[in-house]
Amino acid sequence: MSATASVFIATSLDGFIARVDGSIDWLLQAQATVPAGEDCGYQAFMDTVDGLVMGRKTFEQALDFDPWPYAGKQVVVLSRQGVAVPAALRDSVSISAEAPADLLARLSATGARKLYIDGGQTIQGFLRAGLIDELIITVIPVLLGAGRPLFGPLDADVTLTYVETRAYPFGFVQSHYRRARPSAA
Ligand SMILES: NC(=O)c1ccc[n+]([C@@H]2O[C@H](COP(=O)([O-])OP(=O)(O)OC[C@H]3O[C@@H](n4cnc5c(N)ncnc54)[C@H](OP(=O)(O)O)[C@@H]3O)[C@@H](O)[C@H]2O)c1
Q1: pTM above 0.85, yes or no
Q2: How many CB atoms lie within 10 A of CB 148?
Q3: Which of 13, 40, 122, 135 is the most exposed place for a label (fewest CB within 10 A)?
């Protein structure tokens, strides 16, 4: 059985996941206003995930977090140019340049059931391949004007089924979508 692929990500109101230079200061500032103990469903989502697939740029940013935020999960970092993995992470982090479908098939064969896909370009690649099953997008009430977009060009429409929206009192709005299943002919 093929693993499913999910996105759980925060964007600015104008659809960016990071500034042009990759910084997420605006997101960290917004998160600092969130009441203690509220994680907008992140840990519950993470508990359902077997492993992560992230782009090299997201990985490089995640390396700045201490402690490593994905302890206990297998992480595949997509990169064509390659990236150094710190010794302490070599048991759980691997590098790949596989196409999304090949990677999903390989990880499914090792028993993965649900993968967390992270990083804008990486998510876009999976979307173009028609492989994203679920999107949970938290919109932060800030306009950045420019930055790294969550979404990009597609070869074909991706039709989604709306699941639910949660509006948090501190201004975050989280919407949940699933890939629409083709109706039986
Ligand atoms: N707002 C949020 O919740 C959130 C979440 C995650 C990340 N971010 C931020 O978003 C930024 C990163 O996103 P991004 O869109 O710039 O990039 P990204 O998807 O994290 O990384 C892009 C890189 O991944 C590699 N890649 C992607 N698909 C590939 C494939 N099929 N095969 C081989 N390599 C592939 C390439 O690496 P090479 O260049 O090495 O070939 C590409 O340059 C960071 O600043 C991060 O902090 C924000």
Answers
A1: yes
A2: 22
A3: 13
